[in-house]
Design goal:
Layout: H1 3-11, H2 14-19, H3 21-27, H4 32-40, H5 59-72, H6 74-90, H7 95-102, E1 112-123, E2 126-133, E3 144-151, E4 158-165, E5 170-172, E6 187-196, E7 200-202, H8 212-217, H9 220-223, H10 226-253, H11 269-302, H12 308-334, H13 346-357, H14 365-376
Parallel strand pairs: 1-3
Antiparallel strand pairs: 1-2, 2-6, 3-4, 4-7, 5-6
Helix pairs in contact: 1-5, 5-6, 5-10, 5-11, 6-10, 10-11, 10-12, 10-13, 11-12, 12-13, 12-14
Length: about 375
Amino acid sequence: MEEKQLIDKLIALAPLLEEHAAEADKLRKPVDSVMKAIEDTQAYRYFVPRKYGGFEFSLEGFMDVGIALGAADISTAWTVTFCMEHNWLIGLYSQEAQDYIFGKQPYIIAPGALAPRGKATPVDGGYRVNGHWEWGTGVMHADWVLVGALTDHDGPPELCMYALPIADVSVVDTWQMSGMAGTGSNDIVVEDVFVPGCLRQNLSEMRAGDSPGAHYHQTTTFRMPMLPVLGLTASAPAVGCAKRTVERFRERLQERTVYGTRDKQSERALAQSRLAHLSVRVKTAEATLKQIARDVTEWGESGEICPDIDRAELRVRIGHVVRESRNIVREVVESSGAHAHNLANPFGRALRDLETLSCHTVFDLDIATESYGRLLLGMPSNTPL
């Protein structure tokens, strides 16, 4: 399959996502039929290594998918793009791990709860893993899970990622959120489960583009630095949501009557000016997002290790794109009257979603800018990059 063909198939599903967006919100998880339609496109093979029958398509094309689906339903888009990208994470593992997983199935659908909320103890042939993780995006349709655990070794514990079949975990229904409700990001619990040694990967070896998978595949896709790829994955649906919200605002201006008058809001100069500003701002956010994707891809093409300072800069740039997307939606809602806050109104849902999404730790600009500022001043980073 060609890259454009798969992207076109996924974009063609946008009306289906939009039709079921409110339903996903009420169900507190993506709608099963929508997820099945997405899976049928072969979406989850997007980043699977070519050596295992995958596509290894471009990061910039992936942004087009995230934006289009995010414009239709940001919760489902967030879930789908994460699960697509988590196949990329498996591509950073060792050859033995990839043979173990991709040798048996063409792709996985898995959440990636990588916070160090678990503990792993070495045993013969592998590790015993225990833990309880929040933010399990994708877990409601998963066949595997990826979790982060501190691993006992000589010296300080190592933060590692473990891959487990969904049958080895428990899912706890905790997802009661004001925004991003349709992601179904419930908790994951692992109780004394054995994980083969090959399904463990030290996260510090994955950060800069020099993972075991990068050395194994020797391709652009798997030499890209990890955190910027994760950040872009999560950002594209936010930009898509802001883009669709501005389109809806333009439509709404031509329908809404200004209170106390017979004037359409579209006839007011301030509304016209707001629309002009918002239209340019959202186009700029989209262009910036795609430029960052190209910059990250260039690191993969170069074959060089992406230094801390460059990864820190990329994180700040991504954070600004998400903040701007949120602020665009805030301004639309501010300009749209109290009806925008009705639970059934897509403006209100977009605002709740982006307020929640923008709190994701990868978009925390206080942490990101402090780290980047320290590096600019010749000081070491005080946060993982």
